[in-house]
Amino acid sequence: MEKKPVEALRLNEITKRFGELIANDAVSFSVSQGEVVALLGENGAGKTTLMNILFGQYTADSGTVSVFGQTLPPGNSRAALEAGVGMVHQHFTLADNLTVQENITLGVNPLFSASLGKAAARARIVELSERFQLSVLPEARVANLSVGERQRVEILKALYRDVRVLILDEPTAVLTPQETDDLFATLRQATANGLSIIFISHKLHEVMEIADRVVVLRHGKLTGGARTKDTDKHALAAMMMGTETTPPDIATTSPGKTLIYLQNVTTPDIGNAPGLKSVSLALRSAQIIGLAGVSGNGQTAMAELIAGMRIPSEGRIILRGETVAAWSPRTAVQSGIARIPEDRHKTGTISDFDLTENAILERYTSSTFSRNGWLNWRAARGFADEIIEKYDVRCPGADTTIRLLSGGNMQKLILGRVLEADPQIILANQPVRGLDIGAVNYVHGQLLAARDRGAAVLLISEDLDEIMALSDVIHVIADGRLSPGFERGSMSPAELGIWMAGQGFDEAVVHAT
What domains lie within the chain, and their CATH numbers? Predict the structure, then answer.
């Protein structure tokens, strides 16, 4: 007789409202011990809200959460932790002024206790980071880490606590294909030993690979589910969106003139983050240049340089044939460079501003929104309303404070702000991070349309599938060094992965000598 699986987790009739918005509407599902359940849904479907209720960070209006038969008190994160629930958030919950080790052990032992057991804690962190291929220095200060390194700390923080139910919210967003494979292998081993996992991801091929079962939310309601062995990516996408979704057609184009050229540019290292090392790169009209690499290898330096937030210590920036004498964010904006920043919370928006104010952040001095020193709020509100409608930003209205939006909807507003300005040069840094498949296809279509109109696009992404699908030419960055350009279709993921690990650069040096 087949043994009945042990129920590790049950969410029963969970309902949560924010004013008139129903984020979760009587949601119920369970997870068995040793099972991986993928939680799918479009942006704003209520996934993150539901997980925050499970983890005790939100209090449900009604419904209960049980872990191994124990009903948890609502809104109590410590009770969830003590019951063995761990969560890796989509948006980081780290203390910038503390080290990696202090963040990971925070709450496990008194922070300033002499008996903290720092050596044992460090050894455990190093062991976990090696086993899960999540490389990070325990002594590094979080403020100096890249976005990808911060996500690794979040994963390690959960694993350090010997969790029994682990919630992973977009955990592979900044991992290479090889690192994702290593993580999945370890997760399989962990589930074989009884760990239960809720896996939230918009990468459906990963869902099909790692999950035993999927449940789908749409507009806050549980609308379906299936075992992965009985479905496919197309069926899951249709279940999520309520309709079929198709990626945009990608036509070949002939690149035009060079709009901006980095000539042998070097920038200083900042903390543990490498600067650029004698990098030369041309961004040409009607071309998408993809920049692939493991997070923390110089992408931030490249993005900040293009955006005017860094200046070269060596080399030149040549803009439309003229060497730039003074480079700054104002100069970059006035030169027609539009940016989709990597961190939508820290550098993409002002959290206490509403959607209208955030929509005009980089254009409020333009004649469209300003007259004789006075802001034209009617025009600004109209612009925000247009973005909300066109980019399907799920919100009560343009006067909504932007911090109340989900991460995906916040990203949609930023994308609309950038693309509706019809820029000549687009810095797209992780443009679809946290977006559902329908929004991803729409954004990709908009970037391709901008390219076809003659814009030069620099696409920075740790999602290798995205880079390979959209880029006309791919460069790889590793430790601040830039690879040669590879034409679309000329390199496999494995071959690009070799360059991402830095080995291609070493082999190139050997061949050159």
Answer: 7-241 (3.40.50.300), 247-336+424-513 (3.40.50.300), 346-422 (no CATH)
Range with the lowest mean pLDDT among 5-9, 25-29, 390-394?
Answer: 390-394
Backbone dihedral angles phi then psi of residue 18, each to the nearest 5 degrees: -120, 95
What is the 3-state composition of the chain as percent helix, strand, coil, each rounded to the nearest 5? 35, 25, 40
Joined tokens for residue 444: 């990709």
Which residue, 357, 353, 469, is CA-closest to 402? 353
Token pair, residue 114, equals: 């002499």
User: Do the beta carbons of residue 308 and residue 327 sit within 8 Å?
Assistant: yes
Cα(381)–Cα(377) distance, rounded to whole angstroms?
6
CB atoms within 10 A of CB 265: 25
Cα Rg, the chain, nearest whole Å: 23
pLDDT tens-digit readout, 324-358: 989 999 899 888 899 998 888 888 899 899 999 99
Tokens of 141: 């200060």
Residue 106's SS3 state is strand
Distances (CA, A) of 401 to 359, 365, 383: 12, 22, 16
Instruction: Write out the two tokens for 3.
Output: 């043994």
pLDDT > 50? residue 510: no
Mean pLDDT of the chain: 87
Q: How many other C-beta atoms lie within 10 A of the C-beta of residue 185?
A: 12
Distance CA 248, CA 236 (A): 19
Q: Indicate whether 93 pLDDT > 90.
A: no
List phi, psi (to 5°) of 426: -120, 120
* 13-45: pLDDT as tens digits: 999 998 888 899 999 999 999 999 999 988 778
**Residue 19 · residue 396 · CB < 8 Å:** yes
How far is the CA of 405 from the CAs of 353, 395, 399, 482, in angstroms? 12, 7, 12, 36
Of 143-152, 365-374, 405-414, give the lowest mean pLDDT range: 143-152
